[in-house]
Amino acid sequence: MAANSLRSALGARRRRFVLERPVDDPDGFGGRVRRYVDGPLLWGALSPLSRAERLRGGRSDVVATHRITIRARHGVGPPMRLKSGSRRFAIRAVTDPDERGRDLVCEVEELIEANGEGSP
């Protein structure tokens, strides 16, 4: 009974996500530049968890955290990202809530662009 309460309701996974995979390229100076390439299309449910204020570079930034539930798939985890439209979410942790290999719950942090674009 408890396992059923963890599952999303039928039709709740109506938000489309693209799984973005990191690719590290040499920058020509001995370092690396990380970019993300689009991976598979996934359907999931998005629910907000909290908002926190974090001090970065001498200024206060708002960090929005969410939970995204998707169908289980092998290899999903940090440092991958999920993209839905113009919104991007950095995956911080992934769990299988009922340990049956059906669902994955991703704890994510919404990435806000420095130019102010994106959702707060």
UniProtKB/TrEMBL annotation:
Source species taxonomy: Bacteria, Pseudomonadati, Pseudomonadota, Alphaproteobacteria, Hyphomicrobiales
Pfam families on file: Phage_HCP
InterPro entries, per the entry: Phage_SPP1_head-tail_adaptor, SSP1_head-tail_sf
Name of this protein: Head-tail adaptor protein
